[in-house]
SRPBCC family protein
Amino acid sequence: MVKCYHEVKLNSNSIQVWEFIEDWSNWVEIVPGYQSHQIVSNEESIWKIHGEFGSLKKDTHIHVRILEIKAPSSILFKVDALKEQCIGEGSFHVKSFNQNDTIVSVNMKLTIKGWKGTMLYPVVKQLLPKILEDFMEKISTKIKTPNKQQRSMRVNIPI
């Protein structure tokens, strides 16, 4: 299992940051390797992701399921690579640092089973921290310079 954590401090209030994070349509397209997605339900979607490592290139479909939303502070989710033996879970956390600053963090745990897991573990262990850092920096940039054409697709899940 590969575990990874990354956080960024944003010069934005926590309400503005939460409104961005809770609506996955604001950030799904900046997920590294993003190609497309299909909405299954309010809690589930399937993302097509393209990955490259050296001469290795692969497209994979990832089933993303929201497990829990605790507004305005956290989102828990599960990922499962379809046709692969890769499963994982993660979370976003939004925490007010002070009136104008917010800390956003993301946690990921990935497990790749079988012979591929043994082979890919060192690669995933090396790449996942860089992928999360890149992703969080893109989120930071997008929150600082919001797109006026952002669509609203908020998902409210009863808890």
User: Anything to note?
Assistant: Residues 148-159 have pLDDT under 50 and may be disordered. Residues 26 and 150 are 7 Å apart (CA to CA). The domain at 2-144 is CATH 3.30.530.20 (Alpha-D-Glucose-1,6-Bisphosphate; Chain A, domain 4).
